[in-house]
Amino acid sequence: MSSVKKKRPSPTDSGIEEDIVFEKIIQFTGWIFLLAIMVFLGAWFILDYAMNLIEIVLEAPVFAIILFLGINSAISFGLSSVIKSNRDLKKKYYYDWLIGELLICLFAIFSVAAYQW
């Protein structure tokens, strides 16, 4: 047996540390969207149903906000798990995610604008 130990690659050698930070950032955005929808729905429940202070009606703008936050949260968590399983294609997945976010935002804005018009 050889007395020389093989050198293990450190996480910074292959960029694994950067990939993990990138995954954490994407996961954090998912948690932010999820927290935003929970705060919105929690405030709605407390102010409308529990205290009867204001009356919030589920119309197109409110429904669009709920859908927007829920879809963005799900897409962010999905992107994080896809990147975790396949780190080689992270740029492709990230650009696809950005294009998807742009399309979802445009669709939400135009659907509410068309409804209001």
**Any idea what the shape is?**
elongated
Instruction: Quote the average pLDDT.
Output: 83
Q: Name the helicity range.
A: over 70%
The structure class reads mainly alpha
How is this structure best described in words?
The protein has 117 residues and is an all-alpha fold. The protein has one domain. The protein has helices at residues 16-50, 60-85, 90-116. The longest helix is centred in the N-terminal third of the chain and has 35 residues, at 16-50. The termini are far apart. The model has no long low-confidence stretch (mean pLDDT 83).
What is the element layout, followed by pairings?
Layout: H1 16-50, H2 60-85, H3 90-116
Helix pairs in contact: 1-2, 2-3
Give the tags:
117 residues, mainly alpha, 3 helices, elongated
Write a compact overview of the structure shown:
By secondary structure, this protein is mainly α.
